[in-house]
Amino acid sequence: MITLAHVRVPQRKPFLWDYSAQPKESVSACNACGGTYWVTLADRDRYGFAVQTHCCYSCGLVFLSPRMTAEAYAEFYANTYRDLIAWYSDRPHDIVKGQERYAEKLMPILEAFVPEGAKTLLDIGGEPGICSERICEEWKLKGILIDPACGGNLLNRGLVGCKPWGQGIGLEAFETDKRFDLILMCQTVDHLLDLKGGLEKVRGLLTDNGIFWVDAVDWLYRLRQCGSVEGAVKIDHPYNLMEASFERLLWGVGLRKVRKVYQGPHIGYVLKKGDVGKVEPDSPATLSLLGEIRKVQASQKR
Fold first, then answer.
1. Number of compact structural domains in the chain
2. Which of 70, 93, 246, 248 qualifies as a cystine partner to 86, CB 3.0-4.6 A?
3. Counting beta carbons within 10 angstroms of the beta carbon of residue 160, is it exposed (0 to 12), middle (13 to 18) or buried (19 or more)?
4. Is the pTM of this model over 0.70?
5. Short-list 171, 166, 169, 159, CA closest to 129
6. pLDDT digit string (tens) for 136-149?
């Protein structure tokens, strides 16, 4: 067991939800590479819940095990998740304003890559759909939103450009013969229970010239900020991705990088279809420089 420091739990009244009572399952092999030799890093998360965090020795993927089952996570996201975030941050979680700000930053990134004549968008995990609605308006797209947390209020909200596929439908259960010119997975990939399978499915849902935007917390950045493993992990992220492990996953399923974006603790990619398993060579000098830049950025954001 490697523990860097004690977990920081907010000093306020306890959050009234029993994590220990939730149904759980153990992970038998690394989702990214299939490895079974792990290093156990911590036995608590940032909220103080008793959960073990491991790192795959072969590829560096950081993950929880045991973790809640798919059914327990669906219930958690629908009824508990936003209240937990508000409790931890000690302020209301205004998702509408957050998505409006996110869309304002994302649209200039996508502008150079949206295919000419694009017609269709798929938003994976973007409830309540503010960001995808803005993007549909900007490029006159017809969109579909899938999210396990989608509730009745979203279904009745009157979205024009981006329609919810159904109540509580996640990527694993989503089946369609449609293909999409633009797929968004905004700060959602580390919530999936099957990272590799989910990314493979996204590749199959892209049109030949389609683009895929995905971003996630850069876990190494967050670790440097927090100064402890426990402070950098949480039950709502079954997986934690670092730049190298993230990119290994992407090229492993045949997704080719066309733009990489650093946004505070998050790292994002604009991707297109590529050859499955084809490694994209990186400049060692550039990798060294970017590593130093991320260290500096993390130190400034404490």
1. 1
2. 93
3. exposed
4. yes
5. 159
6. 999 999 988 888 76
